[in-house]
User: Which sequence fits this backbone?
């Protein structure tokens, strides 16, 4: 029985996947909700159709932390999305404004 349990345990550990977890501290739940809402509206520039919350690409992690930092500084959604758009272009927005290029 111990051998079977050990084998099962080894199988689980071999196939377990490490998950990156952000441990950002917010001043209040409203700031956390705002940051999550904004990050869900922005697309990872490296990944195919993944928002910043879904992607673990280095650029997405960096962008997610930038969003968290800007929310903690008191920036609003328009300012943060505007900053991200200036830096990464309209591609990072799931709903870009209608222009001649879109």
Assistant:
């Amino acid at each position: 029985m111990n051998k079977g349990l050990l084998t099962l345990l080894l199988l689980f550990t071999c196939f377990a996947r490490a998950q990156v977890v952000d441990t950002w501290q917010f001043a209040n739940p409203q700031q956390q909700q705002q940051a999550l809402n904004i990050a869900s509206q922005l697309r990872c520039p490296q990944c195919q159709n993944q928002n910043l919350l879904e992607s673990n690409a280095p650029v997405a992690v960096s962008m997610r932390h930038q969003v968290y930092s800007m929310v903690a500084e008191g920036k609003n959604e328009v300012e943060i999305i505007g900053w991200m758009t200036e830096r990464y272009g309209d591609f990072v927005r799931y709903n870009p404004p209608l222009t001649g290029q879109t």
